[in-house]
Amino acid sequence: MHLELSGLTRSFGSLVANDSIDLVIEPGEIHCLLGENGAGKSTLMNMLYGLLQPDSGEILINGEKVTINSPSQAIAHGIGMVHQHFMLVPVFTVAENIMLGRETTRGGGVLDRKQAYARVRELSDRYGLEVDPGALVEDIPVGVQQRVEIIKALANDAEVLILDEPTAVLTPSEIDDLIAVMRQFKADGTSIVFITHKLKEVQAIADKITVIRRGKVVGEAEPSASEEELAELMVGRAVDLVVDKEIAQPGAAALEIRGLSVIDERGHTAVDGIDLEVRAGEIVALAGVQGNGQSELAEALLGLTPIAAGTITVGGKDISRTGTRQRLDAGIGYVPEDRARDGFVGSFTVAENLVLDLFRWPPFSKGVVLQTEAIGQNATERVAEFDIRTQSIDLPVSSLSGGNQQKVVLARELSRPLKLLVASQPTRGVDVGSIEFLHKRIVRERDQGTAVLIVSTELDEIAALADRIAVMYRGRIVGIVGPQTPRDELGLMMAGASQQEAEAEATEHPTTLGSI
């Protein structure tokens, strides 16, 4: 399929989200749409998929103008889309989600689940997308849920597949799997529009790169372009891709964890008797493949997950049996892994979300009465300081792009004095310009004497921020190393090797682990 967008324009009030955008997608190519959060990438693709209607411009398929008023019309034209926030029904099985909207029945009007199972298995085998058709969506990891979304699009015979920020919630190994699948699609003649802001992924997979900035196409680039060149084209200025920080000057232990164990909701031991210290004025990063206890550890520190054994001490005070509010009041800041579930209230305004853990105190309240003027003034200052892209502080946070939602969460947590900052995936879904800013703010927090515990699956981020790296495997810390530790050693430790075993293996068999 030859797909062309010509002069597509879409406004929301005074905001021009897309300004006369031209884009050509050739058959069997991977076309990367690169841009900051809020640049207009998703708006453009939502018009192509029929979720939004353009104010002007046209869409042409194989040279003929088409009108796409709904996703069903897009699907009929051979266009599929995998959204950044998955559109699956959690309590349905994989096969049932695939059937939705295209149900087939057999005698007596009974849903033909057998046919749906067979279709899932056929597509899984063809593209290497290993999925259990009978699994409930709510029980499978996010990486597998994404495969379900892709299979769902392929089941509708998509010739053009739109992937909107597909790696935002994936681990490095899942990203590698996705890139392999994309190459298979290309080999089979399927075109892919790959929306992202991750430069290494663009370089690894793109045939063509179009850069959008503030609603306009500002240029095209070759996949051979350097990260610095791509970043400057995205942001409109030179971007420092290296975190500039002084050597840490740590003080006394601000966080002390002793013998901590956590049982997850399935009854499994997620954190298994660990000891860890984070000192004032240092950044400790937890590294590990997702699902090895890092998330449960972070949630246990905030009281979101009960502990089975052990103690947690912050600033010399045992908080092991206190509630979440008491821990926040004790000086813990928290950036959750899932911002939409735990980081903000989507229906609340930007201004309200920026005081979620402060509204009980002056100047934001007087007795039981909220002080709206002070809340608004705080929001205006935080929006400017953190470059939060919003038309108004009175808009719901759910209307912001994912990266700007993340800025709201971090801005709120860093707007009060902290003893400990716990940040899980602090830059997940955030563009390169914002990552630069957020990394600097985290380092500034460290330099002000705050203890910082980072949980990240991004090895680049860990190496850039950490003063020490604690590697977790199956709920235990297998070693604590410095930030200069080679990636292949970290990778071996993340797979369960001890520090000594990893050093010996990496010396004997060096690899290029983590190249993406």
UniProtKB/TrEMBL annotation:
UniProt keyword ATP-binding present: yes
Is ATP-binding given among the entry's keywords?
Answer: yes
Q: What GO molecular function terms would the record report?
A: ATP binding
Q: Its domain of life? A: Bacteria
Q: Domain ABC transporter: where?
A: 3-239, 255-499
Question: What CDD domains would the database entry show?
Answer: ABC_Carb_Monos_I, ABC_Carb_Monos_II
User: Which PROSITE patterns would you find in this protein's record?
Assistant: ABC_TRANSPORTER_1, ABC_TRANSPORTER_2
Keyword list, A-Z: ATP-binding, Nucleotide-binding
Name under which the protein is recorded: ABC transporter ATP-binding protein
Q: Give the species this sequence originates from.
A: Kribbella alba
